[in-house]
Predict the 3D structure of the following.
Amino acid sequence: MIPNPFSRRAALKSAACGFGYLALAGLTAGNAQAAALNPLAPRFPHFAPRAKRVIFLFMQGGVSHVDSFDYKPTLAKQDGKMMPFDDSRQLANTGKGGSSQRIMKPLWDFAQHGQSGRWASNLFPEINRHVDDLCFIHSMQTEGVAHGPATLFLHCGSTSFIRPSMGSWVTYGLGSENDNLPGFVSIAPSAGNGGPRNYGSAFLPAVYQGTAVGKAGGPASDLIIRNLAAGATSGNQRRSFDLLQQFNAEQLRQHPGDSEMEAVINSYELAWRMQGRAPDALDLSKESPETLTQYGIGAKPTDTFGRQCLMARRLCESGVRYIQVTYGDSGANPAWDQHSNLAKHGDHARAVDRPIGALLADLKSRGLLEDTLVWWGGEFGRTPYAEKNGTGRDHNPGGFTVWLAGGGVKPGFAYGATDEFGHRAIQDKVHMHDLHATVLHLLGLDHEKLTYRYAGRDFRLTDVAGRVVNEIIA
């Protein structure tokens, strides 16, 4: 008799592995099928993520890093002296950048904060209370010396070509965690410097574009999603919607494979589901008076941005994957763009400092900061010298600061450096493509694999560049 080559234990072990494989295959198939039926269905990341979602606090116009988080004592020592600099704007316009400029010291005093001893000025006193949770990148570089190109590069990875925004790439790669809310929301976006392109999907299916709530510089009353059929009964709303979807389905049958038509139908379906959920997610009346006070809601000048930040937290809790919050103006002149009267930075800081500090504290107290990546920054920094020997600073794409918090980055940490004046990044340079690659990595996405085939080639957010800045990952 031939002995049985398998013991009972080995047979059970093999069978268990097989059952596990079948279960995994079933999950994968279910995920793929759900994605085919619903393009916003959750998808598996490329690898285990450190963050589940992103809140991007966009400081439109470019905060002066040498007046906020990049301490350069040389500026105070050399204040008022004329010194040669390579000016980015002159380089872009004439190809010749050498010029003599007047050094301008910071208008706000710097000090060390927290156990980490990070240097920061008193421009943002509330944010400074959280420096031990922040990860500063002091060596940022970007493309574009004007607001339009630089803002598009920040959001889309390109200064001029029509490309999907970062939130659209994230939603395309991961889907949405909530069937009744969009995966990507842009709170108070600006109409200028790229406008809708900064939350658009470009050649990605339209279903991945951001949903705009309000507009930059607009009143707090605009920060709502209204029920489009609020005056009708629920039965009439349902019948109207069903009839509309029947018409849409008939159009799709006549035009099979029309991705734009499919996106429109999906957007109607999502909009219908949003009618019941989005107003609730954005309803701040459900918050306690203490929370409203914490964010500065009901007080000047923090009311509007406080509402935006609190909405971001509520959307974060509701499963929105990418939340973009803009502090800016509705026109072409961005808020932080002080070419003269740099002291105006103080007015803008008073509007955002308390709400941002509250958001960080709120996320941390609720255990959300661990898997939520908060990203703060503008499209570029500002020069260490006075523009045209005046009272403001010009654009500086060659060296500036952003900070990240939560979501797997090192807390109380600083990476990279600019020169002694804060003019150019000189140590551990981080290009905007690198920052994009790192944010995607923290979400479990490989920036080289997150591609979409269009016009005969594979496109990605980081184009043919970008590296993950592993040095800032905890």
